[in-house]
């Protein structure tokens, strides 16, 4: 995720993609990330990250 308006703070929120997300949606409150099922051992993943949790740029 890259943010256009980076002037609001000195640290830009970031996230390392350990799951190989291929889909995402965002609004004013946070982001939803997802990836599809790739077989029995690699199930689908859905994760919500509120922007408030990125305040310290931590995962």
Automatic annotation (TrEMBL):
Superkingdom per UniProt: Eukaryota
Stretches assigned to the WDHD1/CFT4 second beta-propeller domain: 1-58
Pfam family membership, one: Mcl1_mid
Listed InterPro entries: WDHD1/CFT4_beta-prop_2nd
GO cellular component: nuclear replication fork
UniProt record, GO biological process: DNA repair; DNA-templated DNA replication; mitotic cell cycle
Single GO MF descriptor: chromatin binding
PANTHER family: WD REPEAT AND HMG-BOX DNA BINDING PROTEIN, WD REPEAT AND HMG-BOX DNA-BINDING PROTEIN 1
Name used for this protein in its record: WDHD1/CFT4 second beta-propeller domain-containing protein
Organism the protein comes from: Nymphaea colorata
Lineage: Eukaryota, Viridiplantae, Streptophyta, Embryophyta, Tracheophyta
